[in-house]
């Protein structure tokens, strides 16, 4: 789903631990989507570099594409509005990126879902405050809101204050988030 990142459920083989609200996000998504008919809207890229289909998932077919319609009928937006996901903007698929940021802000202000958890529950992504995140094993660095940054095992996770610092340390930029 374009533009959103849900907290992880555990993937022991990938070294990923369950993140707060991961299970709730999975249950919510299963309940709302499993066995349902949906309409997929694509953006600029049909697939990411890992071959995954990239789409906006509409619960009912959109007509005008107005903000109200996005709020009520698009599942990507529902995840943000109900606090089950954080915004994850990946160029060039940014058709609804500004709206998504607005929806996330609303959810945060209202303490919805993961935003109502104890402080520091959402693991990352406050828009640049964390600088850049490196993976000590792969020597790749990311923007903090990159999906791949959020999958780095804690013992491999390195923080940099700037791009320059990461480059000087011998890290190369992620090809997904283009830090
Ligand atoms: Zn990245």
UniProtKB/TrEMBL annotation:
Keywords: Activator, Endonuclease, Hydrolase, Nuclease
Bilayer-spanning residue ranges: none
GO terms, biological process: DNA repair; regulation of DNA-templated transcription
Domain of life, source organism: Bacteria
An MF annotation (GO) of this entry: hydrolase activity
Gene3D superfamilies tied to this protein: 2.40.50.90, DNA Methylphosphotriester Repair Domain
Residues of the TNase-like domain: 1-117
Record-linked SUPFAM superfamilies: Ada DNA repair protein, N-terminal domain (N-Ada 10), Staphylococcal nuclease
Ion transport keyword on record: no
Keyword hit for Transit peptide: no
Protein name, per record: Nuclease
């Amino acid at each position: 789903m374009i533009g959103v990142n849900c907290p992880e459920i555990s993937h022991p083989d990938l070294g990923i631990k369950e993140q707060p609200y991961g299970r709730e996000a999975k249950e919510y998504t299963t309940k709302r989507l499993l066995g349902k008919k949906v309409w997929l809207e694509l953006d600029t890229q049909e697939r990411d570099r890992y071959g995954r289909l990239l789409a906006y998932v509409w619960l009912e077919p959109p007509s005008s594409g107005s903000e109200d319609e996005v709020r009520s009928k698009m599942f990507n937006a529902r995840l943000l509005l109900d606090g089950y996901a954080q915004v994850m903007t990946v160029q060039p698929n940014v058709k609804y990126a500004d709206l998504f940021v607005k929806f996330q802000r609303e959810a945060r202000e209202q303490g919805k879902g993961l935003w109502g958890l104890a402080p520091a529950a959402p693991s990352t992504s406050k828009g640049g405050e964390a600088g850049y995140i490196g993976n000590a094993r792969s020597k790749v660095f990311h923007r903090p809101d990159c999906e791949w940054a959020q999958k780095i095992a804690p013992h491999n996770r390195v923080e940099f204050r700037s791009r320059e610092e990461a480059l000087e340390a011998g890290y190369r930029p992620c090809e997904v988030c283009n830090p």
